[in-house]
Amino acid sequence: MKLWIPFAISAGSLLTIASFVGAGWDAPPVESEQIGFRGTGMYVHRDVENQEALKLANVVPPAPWEADPSGDRAGDIYENVQVLGDLSDDQFNQFMASITEWIAPEAGCNYCHNPENLASDEVYQKVVSRRMIQMTQAINVDWQSHVGQVGATCYTCHRGQAIPANYWYEDLEPKPAGGMTQNRAGQNVVAMFAGNSSLPQNVLKDYLLDAKQIRVHSTTALPTSANLAGTKETEATWSLMMHMSESLGVNCTTCHNSRAFNAWDESPPQRVTAWHGIRMVRDINANYMVGLTPVFPDIRKGPEGDVFKVGCGTCHAGVQKPLYGVSMLQDYADSLTRKGPTEVPDFASYQPGTTQRMAPAGDAPTTPAAPADVTPPVDPVEAAPPADPAAVTPPADPATPSTPAATPPATP
Ligand code: HEC
Ligand code: HEC
Ligand code: HEC
Ligand code: HEC
């Protein structure tokens, strides 16, 4: 008689029980919210314990003081104010105090300035900050279809840190050894930018920098030439969807009715907001982040040498609306809700420690012609985002897979 069988079964059961009871296993109290009709499976599940931590991490800091908008303009008082010149002196100082708290509370003003000469651009963080001011203004002015009236400040991403907690870069490691393992199609490793799944690890570049087609769904029972997407493309889309869900701390059902992932008329309205968000993030990355490549030192770049880029989690940080939808803009209306000059300097000419003034390309006769990202190339389909999110109908479904891709402008 095979006596070992009952022993093996009992040992197996004991091990299973131990793994549930033992360390690392936590059955969190889960909060479920019904967000659609009964029977459609439209629920969002949240870990209650995480919610407490998230609430503490998403408190909006107050402005240091209420700024007086009257008096002489900063552009007239100071030597090298290129973007915020229209602020009053008090507003300008309040803004400097705020960004110090938002970006470098410990290092203080000197994180971006040579204390001997505040006008100098020799500290690279100052050059980056000036471009980030232009970027934040563009988010609040051009992308209300996504950020609404809540908008964004530096704090939305930075939260008191020089480098935001959530960003992404080209992720190709570990590189295959060669031979038959040469192409693993970005799969079969822990993809940290796809919610630690084993889905393709490097798709954010295609969708959140380049404008690759996301839709893969067929609307006919049999294949037609209208949709050539196969399993490979679908996995890449899924990888992006994992990034989006993890970034917002939500389930797929926050944006989709899982009965038909493609159908816009059955999707919750959040999906339309997300659609604009994808276009906004492409604009941020292609026109602001990539252009700064020559200014950032190597330690601020990924293993492939690309700058850290913005993803959904850079602002959202695990919640459905960044900072629970509380706006900080009322205290920064003049600095961040309208655009100052939008000229871009030739960042390739930047010499850290030396350059005294990064002039916009037009100002300095020695710099070459304006870099391509002064006027980003306009994608015919995705031109100027409409201001009113409510009035927007997402593009017809099914999508024409021929949507031309907006190539990011060449790095100046
Ligand atoms: C995160 C980076 C950063 C920090 C921290 C910072 N600044 Fe600035 N500062 C800038 C940028 C960028 C400009 C240029 C703005 C422009 O061109 O519109 C500037 C310009 C200035 C100027 C104008 C100098 C001139 O003559 O052109 C003064 C004065 C100034 N900052 C003071 C301060 C003080 C005081 C602090 C600390 C409370 C501070 N800054 C902290 C980024 C920073
Ligand atoms: C949409 C998100 C986002 C917003 C808004 C934003 N930043 Fe950033 N910022 C980033 C990311 C991502 C990086 C990291 C880039 C890298 O290191 O390659 C960064 C880097 C920086 C750095 C460089 C820090 C270092 O030590 O290298 C400075 C300085 C900075 N930002 C200032 C600002 C200021 C000032 C504002 C507001 C006017 C701002 N940022 C708004 C995303 C953002
Ligand atoms: C924050 C909102 C949001 C979340 C969460 C989300 N999606 Fe999506 N999904 C979208 C948007 C927006 C599109 C369309 C993108 C476009 O067309 O540019 C889309 C497209 C898709 C498509 C392609 C549909 C088609 O027409 O071919 C699939 C499949 C999909 N999502 C699956 C998922 C899965 C699976 C999850 C959960 C892991 C998920 N999504 C989570 C917003 C979301
Ligand atoms: C620059 C910061 C920023 C980035 C980056 C960002 N968002 Fe948002 N998002 C916001 C703000 C601010 C709101 C709140 C808008 C409001 O309440 O009107 C928001 C709202 C949303 C909502 C609506 C939530 C609701 O319940 O109404 C969805 C969905 C969303 N974002 C998805 C995304 C996705 C997907 C990405 C990445 C492709 C993304 N966001 C990137 C700032 C950002």
Biggest sheet: strands side by side, in what order?
1-2
- Indicate the proportion of strand residues: under 5%
Mean pLDDT, nearest integer? 86
The unreliable regions are 364-393, 395-412
Topology as a string of helices (H) and strands (E): HEEHHHHHHHHHHH
Small molecules bound in the structure, each named once = heme C
The H-level CATH homologous superfamily, spelled out, is: Photosynthetic Reaction Center, subunit C, domain 2
Description:
This protein has 412 residues and is mainly alpha-helical. The protein has one domain (63-176, 185-391): Photosynthetic Reaction Center, subunit C, domain 2 (Orthogonal Bundle), CATH 1.10.468. Helices cover 31% and strands 2% of the residues. A two-stranded antiparallel sheet has the order 1-2. The termini are far apart. One heme C binds at residues 139, 146-148, 150, 152, 156, 244, 248, 270, 273-274, 277-278, 281, 310, 312, 314-316, 320-322, 325.
